[in-house]
Amino acid sequence: MRRTGISFSSLYLLAVVSNFFIASAYADSKDSVTSSIGNPIADFSLKDSAGKAWSLADFKNKKAIVVLFLGTECPINNASMPKLLVIDREYSPKGVQFLAINANHLDTHERVAAHAKKNDLSFPVLKDPDQTIADRFGASRTPEAFVLDAERRIRYQGRIDDQFGIGFARPKPTRRDLALALDEVLAGKPVSQAITPVAGCLIARKVIPKAEGQVTYTKNVSRILQNKCQECHRPGQIGPMPLLTYEDASSWSATIREVLEQNRMPPWHADPRFGKFENNRGLAAEDRAALLAWIDQDCPKGDAADLPPPREFADGWRIGKPDAVFTMKEEFKVPAKAPARGVPYQYFIIPTNFPEDRWVQAAEAKAGNRSVVHHIIVYVTEAGKRPENFEDRIGNGFLVGEAPGDMPAVFRPGMAKRIPKGGLLVFQMHYTPNGVEQTDRSSVGMIFAKEPPKLEVRTRAISQNRFAIPPGDANHMVVSTSTFREEALLLSFLPHMHLRGKSFTYKLILPDGKQETLMAVPRYDFNWQSNYRLEKPLVLPKGSRIECTAFFDNSPGNPNNPDPTKEVRWGDQTWQEMMIGFVDYAYTKSEIK
Questions:
Q1: Could you tell me if 23 and 155 lie in one domain?
Q2: Cβ distance 251 to 241 under 8 Å?
Q3: Which of 103, 111, 229, 243 is the most exposed place for a label (fewest CB within 10 A)?
C-alpha cells in the first residue's frame, strides 16, 4: 500500500527542532572555546527561584559536581533536559551533585522556575543575574557542562554528548561525553577528552548600549525584525527566542550576529538563480549590513519617536485570525516511549458540517503539543470515505501540513481550495515520544474567501516510491515526473524527503522539448521545510511535464543518517525515506461558475 506522510525527526523538539528554525538556532563553538581546564573554582553563592541561596560549600562531601549552564529558550538546551535527568539519576548515587545556573539576562526567576518545573529538573537551578559566575567558569553557551573534581578544579568542559549539531540530530549519541568524563573523574583518572565543542545558544548577556549611533533600533533594526524575524520569533511560534522589543534584540545580539555571519538566518533554502518567491524570507544585503553595524555600535536604542507601530499578529496564528478553527475532539495520549517501529500514524476525523461548499483562502495546522508532534497533514474528503482509502491517493485532498518550517497554505485572490458540503477533515498525526507521557489536541485554522473564487487550487504529489538507496551511497539519485493534461497555473513547490535528503530540483519540460529549472534546494534541510510560493503564477501549457530530481546521502558522512549500513526504501518513519515534489496548481480552463 502506498502511503503519504511527512515524517519529521526528533529535532522537532528543538523548535520545536523543534521545533526551527531548529538547526539554525545553535552553533558549534569548537573554534571559540577558551579552556578552563584545571582552573580552581572558588566558592560562590547564588539564589534559586524561591530565594534560597546555594553554594559549592553545601556539597563539600560530594566526589564531583556537575555545573550546567542552562537557559529557557535554546532548542538544544530544551531537548537535552530528559537526558540530563537520566545522567543525574545514574550518577547521584555515586556521589555526584548536579547544579544548574541560568545566566541569560532576560530569564527572570519566574521563567527559570517555570522551565525547571516543566522539565521536572531534579537539581537546584540558580540565577546568575550579571553573568559573574558564567565568566568565572568561562561559560559561553547553553547547555554547557563543567565537571569539578573533589578539589573543585574544572576537569571537563563542553557538551553533554554529540547527538545534536548544526543541521543534524543523530538518532542517538555516538559518545556520551559528560558521562565518560564523570567516570574518569570518579576513578581518579585524567579526562581523556577534557574539552568538547558545545552545540547551543550563546548566553544572552546584558548589553550596555551607546546613546546614539548611525544605525539605531528604533529607526532601523525594529523594522527589519518586524519584516523578517517576528513572524517566527514571538511567543507560541517556532522561533526559540522572542524578538519583539529592544531588550529582546539587544540581549540576543551576539546570537543575531552569529547566525547572520554564518548565513543561517533567516532560513531560506531556495537557490536564488531559479524562480522568484513571494514568501522569500531571505535578508537583503543592506538589511544584513544594518544589523551587523548596529551590533558593532553596541546596540544604540535611538529615539522612541522613531519606532514603527508594533506589528499585529493573530494570537498563535501566522495566517491571521482564522474564520474557523477545527480541533481534535479528544486528547490523544502519547506514550513515554515508542515501540520499536515507531508510533503508528494516528487518524482523527472531524466533520465540518458545512451546509454548502466552502472556499479556503488560507489554512494553517497547529500542533497542540509541539514536543511530541512530528507532523500534521490535514486532508479534506467527502462524508462516508474512510481515511485508509483516502490517504492512499497521495496528494489528493491535501489541505495543509504542519512541520518545522514554513508550511501554511496561502492562496492569491481569486484562487482557493474547496471543502465540499458536509466535508470531513482527516488529521494525519505522527507522534514522537520524548520520554515523558504527553497528551495532544491539535487544530487547523481557516480563512475563507470573501467571494467565490475563479479557480480551484489543487495539490499534486510528484512522487517516486520505488527506489532502493544502497548502503554508504553519498549521492543516490531518484527521479519522479508528472504530466499536466490541461493548461494549468503553477503556484508553489514543497519538496519533501527524510533524513538522508541532500538536494531537490524541479524542472519544467515543455511540449516542444524545451527545458527550464523552476526551483532548486541545493542543501535540503529536513528540519526546516518550506512551501515556496511563486511571486507570479507560471503558465504550464497542456502537455507540460514537471520532473523532480532528488539526491540522497546514505553515507557515514551524513550525521543525520540513522544507519549508513542499511539499504533504504520508501516508508513513513524517519529512518525510511520519501521522495515527493508537492506542487499547488489550478487548471485555467476549469473556472468555477
A1: yes
A2: no
A3: 111
